[in-house]
From TrEMBL:
Organism: Heracleum sosnowskyi
GO BP: any one term: meristem maintenance
InterPro entries (alphabetical): AminoTfrase-like_pln_mobile, MAIN-like
Domain of life: Eukaryota
Residue ranges of every copy of the Aminotransferase-like plant mobile domain listed in the record: 62-256
Pfam families assigned: PMD (PF10536)
Protein name per Swiss-Prot or TrEMBL: Serine/threonine-protein phosphatase 7 long form-like
Amino acid sequence: MYPEPKDPSILHLQADHRSSMVWEVGGGDNQRPRHRDPNNVKFPPLHPRMVPILQALRFDGVSRLSHIQIDWSLITALIERWRSETHSFQLPFGECTISLQDVRILLGLGIDGPAIFGFTSFEGGCDDYIQHVLGVKPGKEGMVGGRVKCTCLNKIFPSLPDDSSDLQLQRYTQSYLLQLIGGVLFTDHSGDQVHCMYIPLIKDFQSCAKLSWGSAVLAFLYRELCKPCRKDIEENVGCIILLQLWAWSRLPTLTPIPRGPSLNNEIIWGDLAGPHGLRNGYDASSGDTLSIVAYPFDTSWGEAYQMIR
């Protein structure tokens, strides 16, 4: 079998692509997804008063999906098949990729509205701006350059009292949103830190609700997938949960056997409908080795690809 593309004029980066390791040394180890692990660092507890705000911002779906465990083997197998030349996955039956429709249906994020942009520096410094928005200055121990530590946010806002004021509710929700943004939607190699450039975007909830968060998440993931598909990269970042839910929904042979209780918190969310991705919101999955996960990719045919219903 010829291990490289028959026509190198399009897939011209094969020499540096991670898939070449399969032919050279039999494959590599699992990559490490940079994603907020709910078992190690807990998200701030939700309060029922936050639900209407999260719904208005269209962040309720991401909030309900944030506790799904990431399958390292599945993510690695997907990255081995991602081509930065075409921004698509190369599978036995052809090419496929994640679309804005997938983002809207799987995560529930908005995909219309103004594009997201902002600033990376602030007059007076990031800590002063954080104090202006959240009411508390994190201090030097809570900052790393232009980033604020999520552990610092947890200490400042550990929980929301039942008798909290509207201002306390707003600031607690803003702290929670920052951790969703830095820990799920726009993860990077910094670990438990979130860049201060996102703070102006959540300062005003009415403006925040109008932004096209879904398109920004997808564009960021596209860019970041083009990095770990190279041989020399060991970590992957971006909205990894979107990548995993897309594979589970579009390629049902990869969907895990449900194990453990559902992650849907009925005390908080009641009977409110969740995003499509919540169908696989269980405490554990069945995929655990790269060879087992990769096998369905290499044996699947076109009829295995599913439209989301």
